[in-house]
Amino acid sequence: MKQRDGSLDALLDLDGQILVLDDQEGYWVKFSVRRVHSSPERPHGLDYSFTVHGKNNVRLIGFDNAHAARHSNRPGGKGQVEFDHEHRLESIRPYRYRDAATLLADFRNEVDAVLKERTGR
User: Fold this and answer.
1) Burial (CB count <10 Å: 0-12, 13-18, 19+), residue 55
2) Residues of the chain by 3-state class (helix, strand, coil), percent to 5
């Protein structure tokens, strides 16, 4: 029997939340997450999108599974296709979903890294 992911409820509670990270600099986060039927594209049964935006609403970071992302971005783009992936500025790379707590921690770590790069704090 598969054990229930205890952090899943906390993740689902974030749906629809918009949080201001830094009002002066204009950084904010938007969460969208909902349960869906498990499928090959979403074996964990979640449809999610977490984004961080900066000035002029430019997306700086995004974790989502809204579309396929290849493991290779070379010409021809051959390779395994994953739906869970992360955006960082203009790049996209596959993301390996483990559980809700790890997803939130990984997202937070990326947010902290980008804000530190941009603000020096």
Assistant:
1) exposed
2) 25, 35, 45
Give pLDDT tens digits for 8-45: 999 999 999 999 988 888 999 999 999 999 988 888 89
Contact between 35 and 45 under an 8 Å Cβ cutoff? The reply is yes
For the CA atoms of 21, 65, 2, 5, what is the dihedral angle to 10 degrees?
A: 10
CA distances from 52 to 37, 49, 110 (A): 27, 10, 10
Q: Which two tokens stand for residue 82?
A: 């994953």
CA–CA separation, 43 and 39 (whole Å): 5
